[in-house]
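cron nightly-structures :: item 1 of 1
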Amino acid sequence: MSAKVVVASPGAPKAIGPYSAGIKAGGFLFLSGQLGIDPASGQLAGPGIAQQSERALTSLQSLLDVNSLSMASVVKTTVYLKSMDDFPEMNKVYERFFVFEPPARSTVEVARLPKDALVEIDAIAML
């Protein structure tokens, strides 16, 4: 049985609660939901869904990079949207990150996200 390993990246924001940005276990990398937060400022990357989606996906990509993985390694994502009206614009950004064989995905509308963000995205990748 392999041990779990905590992962982090300077290119992704620090956790804003008692959780890890990622955990390696059982042949997978489980990445916690990323908001559209700029890791340098700790603030949302912008007021719009495109800016926040881009930043959230860039943070996920950074966590993959430090583990010698790419977006092609991702097998499942979950997208949490403050408003399903933002789905088309978020999807335009999302498809730029998953060009070839995109992962399975669930997208849900939620009442509220931390820091009043518009989007949060988590991922599971194969090691």
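cron nightly-structures :: done
The chain has one domain: 5-126.
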